[in-house]
Amino acid sequence: MTTKQNLYGLTLNQLKEVVNELGLPKFTASQIADWLYRKHVVSIDEMTNLSIKARQLLDEKYFVGLIAPSQVQASKDGTKKYLYPTSQAGKFIEAAYIPDKNRGTLCVSSQIGCKMGCLFCMTGKQGFQGNLTAGEIVNQIQSLPEFEKLTNIVYMGMGEPLDNVDAVLNSLEILTAPWGYGWSPKRITVSTIGIIPAMLTFLEKSKAHLAVSLHTPFDEERRNLMPIQNVYPISKVISEIKKWDMGKQRRVSFEYIMFKGVNDTPKHVKEMVRLLSGIRCRINLIRFHPIPDTVLEGTPDEDIIAFQNALKARGMTVTIRASRGEDIFAACGMLSTKALVKKSEELDY
C-alpha cells in the first residue's frame, strides 16, 4: 500500500514535478498552489477548477495534509501556546501566538527538539528528534485559529532554523511568493545561533530579516552557554554579516538573554559595542524564563534597564522585549516537553 504524500508545503516548482509525474497539464500546478495557499482548501475535492480525472489522479497519491493544533494554553495576557502533532508519531512541536495592539505575531518551530545544546534552552534538553518539513512549518501558520489576525512571523520556536535551511527556505518561498501567501519578507524574521554556511545561503536566497542569538560578546563565556561557538565563533559570524549589503529594507537584530552575574556587566556593554560597530542593527534584551535544572538566573529588571541605558549611551539601538505568557510554560520547549513526557508515560504504562 502506497502512503499518500502531503501537497501542502510544496513549492510551485515541486507542484510542477507532481503534475508532470501524473501527466497533467502544466498549468495545473498553479491552480493547485492557488487552492492551497490563496483559497486555503483542506481537501483535493474542493479544487473545483481541476477536472474530475485530475482530482482522482491526485487523490490516489496525495492529500492536502493540514493538521490542527491538538492543545492550546491561553495566558492572562492574551498569549496562546499551541501544541501540534508531527508526522513522527508521539512527537510534538509548539507555536506561540502573541497579540499586541494592532500586531499579531506567531513564533514558529522549525525542528522537533534541537541538537545545539544551549545551556539556557528547554528545547535543547529534549535532544534532536527530527526536522520539520516546509509543510509542517507553514501548517503552524495556516492552521492557527488566529490566522487572519497575523501581521508578523518569527522563526524563533523549537529548533535552529538554519540547521534545517532547505525546509525553512521553502517555507519562506511559500509565504512570500505571489503564487503563495504573498507576504512581504519584511514581516518575517528568521533567528539563528550562527551557522555561517546556512546563514549565507539564507541571506542570498531570502529577503526576510535576520536575528542572531548573541547572549554574550566574549568567546569563552559564549562557548559555555552555546557549544556552537566551538564551530562558528561569534566574531566570524559578525564578520560575515558586516560583508553583506543588507540594504535599507532588511534588518539585523541581536538577541541577548540576560543572566544574572554572567553577561550583564559594564565590560559586556563595552565589548558588545566594539563587536557590533559598523552594523546597522537592533539589540533585543530578553528576560530569562527559568527552566528546570539550570544554574542560570535572570538579571533583575532594574539591572536590565541600566544595561539598556549604558548601551544607548554608546549609540546602540536597544529594546527590552516584553515578557509574555509567563503563566503558560513560557520558555520555548516547555509545553512540548510536557506532552512528550506524558506520551512516554502512556507508552510505558
Describe the overall structure:
The protein is α/β, with parallel strands linked by helices and 349 residues long. The chain folds into two domains: 59 residues, DNA polymerase, domain 1 (Orthogonal Bundle), CATH 1.10.150.530; 275 residues, TIM Barrel, CATH 3.20.20. Helix content is 35%, strand content 19%. The strands form three sheets. It has a ten-stranded mixed beta sheet with strand order 3-4-5-6-9-10-11-12-13-14, sandwiched between helices. A hairpin with a 6-residue loop joins β4 and β5. The longest helix is centred in the C-terminal third of the chain and has 15 residues. It is elongated, with a radius of gyration of 21 Å. The C terminus is likely disordered.
Structural class: alpha/beta
| Biggest β-sheet strands, sense, barrel | 10 strands, mixed
How confident overall, as mean pLDDT? 91
Q: What helical percentage do the residues reach?
A: 25-40%
Write the H/E string, N to C.
EHHHEEEEEEHEHEHEHEHHEHEHEH
CATH H-level superfamily title of the largest domain:
Aldolase class I
Please give the CATH class of the largest domain.
Alpha Beta
The quaternary state of the protein chains shown equals single chain
Total beta strands: 14
Strand order of the largest sheet: 3-4-5-6-9-10-11-12-13-14
Strand composition percent: 15-25%
Poorly predicted residue ranges = 343-349
Supply the number of helical segments: 12
Q: What is the name of the CATH architecture of the largest domain?
A: Alpha-Beta Barrel
Tell me the domain tally.
2
**How many whole angstroms does the radius of gyration measure?**
21 Å
Termini gap: 31 Å
C-alpha geometry: elongated
CATH topology of the largest domain: TIM Barrel
